[in-house]
Amino acid sequence: xWTFETEAGNNGYRTIAGxxxxxxxxxxxxxxxxxxxxxxxxxxxxITDSKKLSEKKREALFPVIRENALAVGxxxxxxxxxxxxxxxxxxxxxxxxxxxxxxxxxxxxxxxGKFTIExxxxxxxxxxxxxxxxxxxxxxxxxxxxxDRIMAELSVKYPRYDFHxxxxxxxKAHKEAILIxxxxxxxxxxxxxxxxx
Length: 197
Hints:
Blueprint: H1 3-10, E1 16-22, E2 31-37, H2 55-68, E3 71-77, H3 79-85, H4 87-100, E4 108-112, E5 123-126, H5 134-157, H6 163-166, H7 172-181
Parallel strand pairs: 1-4, 4-5
Antiparallel strand pairs: 1-2, 2-3
Helix pairs in contact: 2-5, 3-4
């Protein structure tokens, strides 16, 4: 899990940030990204792609990462931006905002996925990076937990949709709620499953 960080370090980089997003697939809410710089001596078993972890495990790792990281940044793009510029561009924008949010400026970026972000910083895109890079995996946990908490708050505001249960993903119950009640203000109007209604 340290291969990409070690390679960047061998090339002279010292503040290496892993970046990942959560929430590309849901029908509602924002896409949330995180950027994390871990110290070289950081040790914490269990950190991997957030999708492979239980909610309880993610919640347990969240404060460990926040307390031990050299820097953590969070960025997001809301449902309106997603509808306006599309989900891929919104995801990359939220990643850029996560980097801009960091208290310590990174000198190298490891970006999950096929695309790099708009930044003058040297960077590399890593497919399945959240399973291959410790920094990206840590970022995936921060992004996922942060987004889940946002969706829990939106569930209180819009109780008909049970966002706290499915986090906005297109479950059967969620799609039925949209058909019965119509979309709420935080639904992504450009997404199939919302657009038709």
